[in-house]
Each structure stands twice: as C-alpha cells, then as structure tokens.
Specification:
With about 350 residues, this protein is an alpha/beta fold. It has helices at about 10-25, 90-105, 140-150, 165-170, 180-185, 190-200, 215-220, 225-235, 255-260, 270-285, 290-295, 320-330, 330-335; strands at about 1-5, 30-35, 50-55, 70-75, 85, 125-130, 155-160, 200, 205-210, 240-245, 260-265, 295-300. The longest helix has 16 residues, at about 270-285.
C-alpha cells in the first residue's frame, strides 16, 4: 500500500487536500496529515511519499524533508526543488506529479509554477434548459442529454432547481454542495481548483455539482455570484460542455441564459402552457434579450412509454436514442464539435 503524508500548517487546506487525494488514489493509498511540526517524524520508508506545503514558517525550519517529497508553494513563492507545483494547482496536476515521483518519471527538471491546474485551450460550451411551463420533464431531458453528449465530450451538470431530486440521489457520497463552492469562489478564488474536487460528484458518465438544498439558500445567491462561479469553472476546470438545468427562482436567470450556446425550452400543447410561454417571450422582448430567443429551441417531448431513470443512464434506451437524434437534427452536435 502506498502511503502519502501531507505536511501543512493550514488545517483547512490540508484536510481538503487529503479528501481530494483520497478520491483520486482510492483504495490503494493511506493518507495522513500533520499540521503540527512537533508531531512530525519523517521516515525514509519504501512506498511512503510526502506532500508538503513549502511554507516559510519558523515552526518548520530545520526539519528534515524526505527525498520523495512534492513541494506545494504559494503563488508568488520560489522553490529550488524540482518536485514543486503551486499550492493551488488542480488535484489532477498534484496527482500527476505524485505519480511521476512514485514511478521515477519526473521529466520536468525545473520548478513549475501552475497557478491553475487545467491545460485546456478552449472554453467549454454552455447548454441551458429553461421553461416557464412546469412538469415538462426538463431535468430528465437535460440530464439525459448531458449523458448522451458525454459519449464524445467531458460534461458537467449543474442544477439550479430548488428541492432538486439530485441532492437525495448523491448525498450519501458528498457532504459538500454548490453552496460551499460559491463561498470559496467569493472568499478564496485561488483555492477553487482544490475545493472543486471535494464538491463535484463523479458519475459513471458525467460529473454533477451537488445542488443547493433549499429554496431560501438559492434566493440568497446574487446574480454576480452565479456568474462568477460559472466563469471559474470555465477557466479552471477541464470540461467540454456544461449543462445548466435552470430555474426561475434564481437571481440572474437571463444573464446565465445569455452565456449559453443553446437553450432548450420545453412546451406543452394545452392553452395554459401556451399562455405561460407567450408571457415569457414577451418578457424577453421587453428586456431586449432577442439573443436568448435566437438561441432557444422550443421542443415538446413525444409520449414515450418507458423513460428510464435519467440519473442511471441507459445509452441504448428508446429515450436516449431519441435525444441523440434530437441533437443531431437541431445542429447542437455539430456546434459542440467546433473548437
């Protein structure tokens, strides 16, 4: 078994890093944390590797640092050791560097100052779902479409619904929610990469941000905070497509829709649904959001006798086939293939 020891005076950072690395290296690693130098007793033992926040603190001066150590530095801090990355790099980069040390394949030969962890050169495309008409299977369609798109792209799914059904489906594996990520985005954006990995749920096909639990918590989020969160994900996370399952309860709804490449609006045939859709389109015109209307595809789902649970994707189901043909026919698939 590989053992990884984290040395860092910042208890919050150290515990978050331990949680993230546990997700990445499970079940073949045992990870321990030292935040007190008095309790730190390094040992040069085979298969034991160290991750240390290389801090210029007097408490850690004079300690012997083992050879198999990955140094994590502050953004503006210089480190002469070749095995060094920024303290706020993505967990994926930290993991990659650890593996290089473990296998003896470190080819860098010099300090790498990576303040953000992704190397993606293209911005992810946002696909939004919103309808003023209720009970039209919006979440089922958006989640299924995300799974279909994940067959050729890396996809993140974000639900903005109050009382989202997704929370109960993934709460057993994740304690943090999107609310925690919003707080980090606002107060410590340099730590975004690390904390993102402690929040996101990795499904079989797509990644999901655990939704905020209740309506009053969603109403407390300002429009700017939602926009900042999406921009942080676009810049620092390696996704090709981000699915937004939008709700009228959030602040900045039209701003988020304006960021989308395509918006799907589900409709029904009854006169009440048509009246609500008409009021919604009148609002868009009054707010001078013709751009949203231009990007919107209105769609009415046909009757399908058996629609599988969207959370557990079945790629060969009738509904998945229907959604696959839907995005091929309306041009979305072609747009996602354009860099």
């Amino acid at each position: 078994m590989v053992e990884i020891t984290i040395l860092c005076s910042d208890k919050g950072y150290a515990n978050a890093l331990m949680e993230s690395l546990s997700e990445e290296f499970r079940p073949g690693a045992r990870i321990s944390v030292y935040t007190d130098p008095i309790k730190y007793n390094p040992q040069e033992v085979d298969d034991v590797y160290y991750v240390t926040a290389y801090e210029e603190l007097s408490d850690w001066e004079g300690l012997i640092i083992p050879e198999r150590t990955l140094f994590l530095t502050e953004l503006d801090q210089k480190c002469p050791n070749r095995n060094a990355v920024s303290k706020y790099s993505s967990v994926e980069l930290i993991k990659t560097k650890l593996i290089e040390i473990m296998t003896g394949n470190d080819k860098t030969g010099a300090f790498r100052q990576d303040s953000v962890g992704t190397n993606s050169t293209k911005s992810p495309k946002l696909v939004g779902f919103f309808s003023p008409v209720r009970r039209c299977s919006q979440t089922t369609l958006s989640l299924t479409m995300g799974n279909v798109i994940s067959e050729t792209n890396k996809v993140l799914f974000i639900s903005f619904e109050s009382f989202s059904p997704l929370f109960s489906l993934i709460e057993s594996s994740k304690k943090k929610t999107m609310e925690d990520l919003l707080l980090i985005t606002k107060e410590s954006p340099e730590k975004f990469n690390l904390f993102f990995e402690t929040v996101v749920y990795h499904g079989d096909f797509i990644d999901i941000l655990p939704p905020i639990k209740s309506l009053h918590q969603i109403l407390d989020v300002r429009a700017k905070d939602w926009i900042d969160l999406i921009n942080q994900i676009k810049i620092k996370c390696d996704y090709d497509v981000i699915i937004l399952d939008l709700s009228e309860t959030i602040h900045g709804l039209l701003d988020l829709m304006g960021m989308c490449e395509r918006i799907y609006t589900l409709t029904q045939e009854d006169r009440f649904a048509k009246a609500k859709l008409n009021e919604y389109e009148t609002l868009l015109r009054n707010c001078e959001h013709d751009d949203i209307m231009y990007k919107t595809v209105k769609h009415r789902l046909p009757y399908i006798e058996e629609i599988p649970d969207a959370f557990h994707y079945q790629p060969f189901s009738v509904f998945a086939k229907y959604v696959r043909e839907m995005i091929m026919g309306d041009g979305l698939y072609a747009r996602l293939c354009v860099d």
